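Query protein
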Amino acid sequence: MKLCFILNHLYTPGGIERAVSNRLSELSKDHDVYVLTTENGHLPFYFGKHDNIKYIDINIKFKRKDDGGFKVNLYNIFFSIILFIKLQVQILRINPDVTINVIGVHTLYFVPFLLRQGKTILEHHASIYQYPPSRLRKEIMKKFKYHIFLTEEEAKLADFIENKIVIPNPIKGNHQALIPFSSRKNKILAAGRIVEIKGFDRLILAWSLIQKKHQNWILEIYGDGDKKVLDDLEALISELNLSDTVFIKPATSNIVELMLESKIYAMTSCYESFGMVLLEAMSAGMLVVSFDCPTGPRNIIDDQVGFLVEDNNIELFSEKISEIILNEDKYLDKSENAYKKSLDYSVNSVNERWNNLFLSIK
């Protein structure tokens, strides 16, 4: 089957980019896969390329807001027309059986109107709870034949569309490299884009409440993003006198390796559609703690595999971290259960669901 995946770019170290790379490497073994990016340019793909996938970049340069959002101006409107024309040219050349718009980006407004695009699929990665679509966006979404959601909860929120299918993002963990918990570093880990929605300020505040009790522990945050948010986080660390125990480091493609040597993964996002990084931490045998934010964590974590804390209850979050540190042996069964559950999200398991979908619409 000839598949064409459309997305903005693959040069950043985000969870979507990692999930796409994991998934397409396997799908390309059974299908003729094309990856059509709109704004990647000459930048290298962060997670590399695969020899049996055809990559095409349209190389449109839209003007963006500081947070990456789309600016509505004459320049971008003109290049939107150019984008539509270039998309149509490439789709006619590829002549796909299925066209998959990977994220709810600019191209979703165009894909349903392209000629010879085959069956159309829209993947929903951003939470509808966080970004409720406008009336126009809803009408465009309805024109896609199939919709992929990461969780049942997100699918239920989209009550205005039909043909909804739940397929989570896959993880690609090294299940043979688990390090005994007692041999790991006394380290709390967090990762994600340095933007307000990830709530790293909440994590720093939580750690400030207990760090004096656990001076042989450190907190490391990995990510790139908004410079203003990064500056604010660094200022908060300095203000709370945490410079010796809290470290913000650049994003890395080796995050799973870092997880394998760490004990606790902490997620303090304000919203999460899925939270793939939680699954990666579980696959590395970490103890995971997360705010019960809308909507992803509660679809992954239960009391058998981790700890869900009332959203924005920073004091309770800090108490849970401290409790784990003081009684880590008591919770090793959660680490084992988390590792076992992560196997359900392996690339092979998830791609089987994609292949079943493609067979059903052939």
User: Anything to note?
Assistant: Residues 3 and 33 are 5 Å apart (CA to CA).
